[in-house]
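User: I'm writing a short report section on ligand binding and want a predicted complex to refer to. Could you take this sequence and zinc ion and write out the structure as tokens? A short remark afterwards would be nice.
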Amino acid sequence: MPDMIIEEAPQRPVGLFLIIRQISQWGLDLLFPPRCGNCGRVDVGWCDDCTTLLAECPLVSKLKSLSETFSVISSGVHEGILREALHNLKYLRQTQLVSLFGARLASLWVEQNRSADFITCVPMGMNRLKERGYNQADLIAQSFAYRVHIPYIPHALTRVKETISQVGLSAQERQNNMRGVFKAQSEEIRGKIGIIVDDVLTTGATLSECANALYDGGAKRVYGLTITRASDVF
Ligand SMILES: [Zn+2]
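Assistant: Sure. The structure tokens for the complex follow:
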């Protein structure tokens, strides 16, 4: 029947396309096999052994006072498996590592024996967010908030101006670059104690500006929490 021929005809290119795509994928996997971002083992982006190593990586709780009213607590130095794992989360889309980081911050926070009313994160600039597709600090903060049962307010801080990359800038230049970048959403944070989450503490310029914005918005007390700190911070 002629109309049956018309129905079958378009299916051929689709089937052929799927086969070609599958063969191309096999070819790419053969030429560039995925490797664990920590130990280099072939076939996975982050292997089970390195997941166990990361989960068991000891907490080295360090507190850095950036001002009289703002301190940042970090769970370790930016080196070894912590540095590799953060790099894999930020640049290689290994987002399955988020829950381990969330659990790590939860243990760190419980150790502090303090209370808080809300959790937020350092907001990412629109250009970088479009490029990367996700904000790693947002993902970690969500996972952390879920574990410690403290409300997560992702929009507590907004970026009101774009900044140039902080890489290669001096401490003073970073501070100037970040001035007036953030604004707090006042209604939900007024009179409350908040935690700002970020992945790494370097000079503290970004986190300090976030804390200033939250205080300007009426927060009662603000803490910073990061997975790692640059070794030269302390
Ligand atoms: Zn591995």
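A remark for your report: The mean pLDDT is 89. The two ends are 81 Å apart (CA to CA).
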